[in-house]
Automatic annotation (TrEMBL):
UniProt enzyme class: isomerase
Annotated NCBIfam families: DapF
Domain of life: Bacteria
Protein name: Diaminopimelate epimerase
Its EC number(s): 5.1.1.7
Key word Cytoplasm present: yes
Native source organism of the sequence: Sinorhizobium kostiense
Primary location: cytoplasm
Pathway: Amino-acid biosynthesis; L-lysine biosynthesis via DAP pathway; DL-2,6-diaminopimelate from LL-2,6-diaminopimelate: step 1/1
Free-text function comment from the UniProt entry: Catalyzes the stereoinversion of LL-2,6-diaminopimelate (L,L-DAP) to meso-diaminopimelate (meso-DAP), a precursor of L-lysine and an essential component of the bacterial peptidoglycan.
Amino acid sequence: MADRVQFARMNGLGNKILVIDMRGRKDRVTPEAAIMLNADPATRFDQIMAIHDPKAAGTDAWIDIINSDGSMAQACGNGTRCVVQALAAETGKKAFLFHTVAGLLETREHDDGMISVDMGIPRFDWKDIPLAEEFHDTRRIELQIGPIDDPVLHSPSVASMGNPHAIFWVEDDVWSYELERFGPLLENHPIFPERANISIAHVRSRNEMDLRTWERGAGLTLACGSAACAAAVSGARTGRTDRTVTVNVPGGPLVIEWRESDDHVIMTGPAEWEWSGTLDPATGAFQRDETSGETGARAL
Ligand SMILES: N[C@@H](CCC[C@H](N)C(=O)O)C(=O)O
């Protein structure tokens, strides 16, 4: 038990997150531990957010983001809100500056419990997504799935929110597409050398869209915050939407603002604590706290 750390099972609009407290330690959550934790229905997750000691002055923590297949991700909007809620409950602070492989993330918990994350400036250059071939206009790239003369999905917009996203625009209901079938094929398409998160978007109005996402390294999820940001900026870039849009993901609505003043993308939504326990970050062996199980915001 001595080598165990605290963790909380949380969710951001149904995106299943394990927040693991690695502060004060030099080791990292291993891919083996991630795979073990994901294999148990009690701890099955979409992402792990491992909180480490800060690496730079002025920041509150370094965060490693790990997908359920054990791979590392550069961004996780829903998981970031979960970390904010856990640390706000622990410290009473309302604002945090986090550091990830993709850069700095400014965050704030509002009085109504909603949490905003500054997801940074999106990138659109084909080399930044990255794509395997040169495309001058990433608002619409040549990529399709299904019969060549009658594709089911085609011509996605692509964007990087630190992590790679492709957004397929559809005129009809996002639920009428077999994303569980097309998602893995598109995630691993050779055009995406680092794989990609694959979303289907239906625009309802200039300020609202519906979005389903097949996540790189995690599969179908109820919510993907960075995909909502990528879809919002791609909607604005292609003239479909305004710069502030409500993105309805299967788990509920996220509000995304692509700020005019500095091009940063601000994502606002909820986070929810479910239960907590201790685990071994090397093996993934875990124990649930007997006393945990009430809902509401909790410290780790
Ligand atoms: N759920 C996340 C995105 C997680 C990362 C993604 N699977 C990747 O590998 O890029 C979110 O809320 O942004």
